[in-house]
Amino acid sequence: MPKKPRGLLIVVTGPSAVGKGTICRALLAETPGLRFSVSCTTRPKRPGEVDGVEYYFISKEEFERRIAAGEFLEWAEVYGNYYGTPRAYVEEMTAQGHDVILDIDRVGARAVRQQYPDAVSVFVIPPSLEALRQRITARGTESPEAVERRLAEAPEWIREGLTYDYVIVNDDLSRAVAELRAIIIAEKARTKRNGAALIETLLEKGALTDG
């Protein structure tokens, strides 16, 4: 039996309100074996959010205790709130061969990519800055000043996408989900990930012969 390859670690990020979470949830709903790493945050829960689904909502004191205990794969303070990825779940799932998606901000994404150079990085961008403005405003959770601040930072965010493995334009949800699915399928077939092990197994069994 060939050794089961580690699962992929897929890092998905992009500007606030670009829709990366919606893309990830849609793909997860149709891909039973895929796992999603639920982040922890100290920010207030938004209407409709469920603890343990969108985030684990915890106090600042509890978050800082977990930082000190080394329980986060990455963490960052964004707009006055802490966000972090629990380490144990990601390491356990990938060790078991499950692919794991992280929906995190760019600061966290940098930290994960440094620790896991083989992670697949995907950057989601809006079709236009005006579309991004509409999405942030429609969310109804930001003050006008906060909306303008996020829009002012968006170009810097988007330029960072040049350093990622893949870029997805989220102008159509179905297409964006299909593109993310295709990225994962293609990455799993790359020889450096698991193809070499499969080929060696076939050769050992004599399943491949010349001619």
What does this structure look like?
The two termini are 25 Å apart. Strands 2-7-1-8-9 form a five-stranded parallel beta sheet, sandwiched between helices. By secondary structure, it is α/β, with parallel strands linked by helices. The protein has helices spanning 20-30, 60-68, 87-95, 106-115, 129-139, 144-160, 173-188, 191-205; strands at residues 9-13, 35-37, 39-41, 55-57, 72-78, 81-86, 100-103, 120-125, 166-169. It contains eight helices and nine strands. α1 (20-30) packs across α7. The protein has a domain at 9-37 and 99-204: Rossmann fold (3-Layer(aba) Sandwich). The model has no long low-confidence stretch (mean pLDDT 89). The longest helix has 17 residues, at 144-160.
Question: Number of helical segments?
Answer: 8
Integer average pLDDT: 89
In CATH's first tier, which class of the domain at 9-37 and 99-204 applies?
Alpha Beta
According to DSSP, the number of beta strands is: 9
User: Largest beta sheet: what is the strand line-up?
Assistant: 2-7-1-8-9
Low-confidence stretches: none
What coarse outline follows from CA principal-axis ratios? Answer: globular
Share of helix among residues?
A: 40-55%
For this structure, the CATH topology of the domain at 9-37 and 99-204 is Rossmann fold
Identify the CATH architecture of the domain at 9-37 and 99-204.
3-Layer(aba) Sandwich
Distance between the termini: 25 Å
Strand content: 15-25%
User: Could you tell me the radius of gyration in angstroms?
Assistant: 19 Å
CATH superfamily of the domain at 9-37 and 99-204: P-loop containing nucleotide triphosphate hydrolases
Task: Give the ordered list of helices and strands.
Answer: EHEEEHEEHEHEHHEHH
Largest sheet data: 5 strands, parallel
Structural class computed from helices and strand pairing: alpha/beta
